[in-house]
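Hi, here's the filled form for the chain we discussed.

Project: internal
Contact: R.S.
Residues: 317
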Amino acid sequence: MSASSAASSLSTPSTPALSPVAAPVAGDALQSGASRGRILLCLVTLYLVWGSTYLAIRWVLQGGMTPFLASGTRFLLAGALLFGAMWLKGSPVPTARQWGSSAVVGLLLLGVGNGGLVFAQQWVPSGVAALVVGSLPMWSALFGGLFGQWPGKLERWGLAVGFGGIVLLNLGGELGGSGWATLALLVSPMSWALGSVLGRRMPMPQGMMAPAAQMLCGGALMLTFGLLRGEHLTAMPDARALAAFAYLVTFGSLVGYTVYGYLMRHTSPSVATSYAYVNPVVAVLLGVVFAGESMSPLSWVAMAAILGAVVLLTRKR
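And the returned structure, exactly as it came back:
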């Protein structure tokens, strides 16, 4: 995700919210209010930014921050900034019912979805974590189908090819360290997919107040859980951790979460969550550049399969 496109998506008043009440999108067709160019720009932005957050999360944890306190503070800051900006522009404050829906979606997307991922990355390498989250489109398609939005034939081929690429990329890899970490990492994409589907059907605040409210609720829940677990800072985080945390607040949360909301409003769940196929590619490549990891021939074949799946998922019928 480029910085310029991210800033543009945040500053556009007409950008739809993450989970406003809207009729589900049939197949991978676009709603009338969205241009294909903007959809593609949002997808590329989401692919790059959320793919890089795995490495940023790793640096945050290595620098001395704790998983739920760091994640809760991250989303509280991002939510407060977005909420304040929308309030100053005259956006209506969410009603009690909308706050309740935001809390449910915030819990599923951020508390369990993102929180489980960050918790697991204390033991699981960032590249492996990205691979497991690659199952997200499968769960999204399943939950979408349960609500009457089964993927079309082309999307099903895309899901199959993408899943095959994830399997190839993960051959020989293991989820190590902790049984709780493995469980959290496996549940994380399921919770995110369910929250994404439910958010399209629940009463949400209008405009960008929706992602603001969800980040505030999800951040508060994670921060509370972290305090109950006894998390606390034992030392001042190092400079790299602080820089990574700032990146997660601005790009990972403010930019990425808002762009994701736009995609959920204007595309099918399978298209909006197709970033899960590209994120492992970005995460592995960052590992090659910054951690000296090598890429096997099998990995390059897997990369080709993953990118081919994205083409099938995002191609207009």
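Let me know if anything looks off before we file it.
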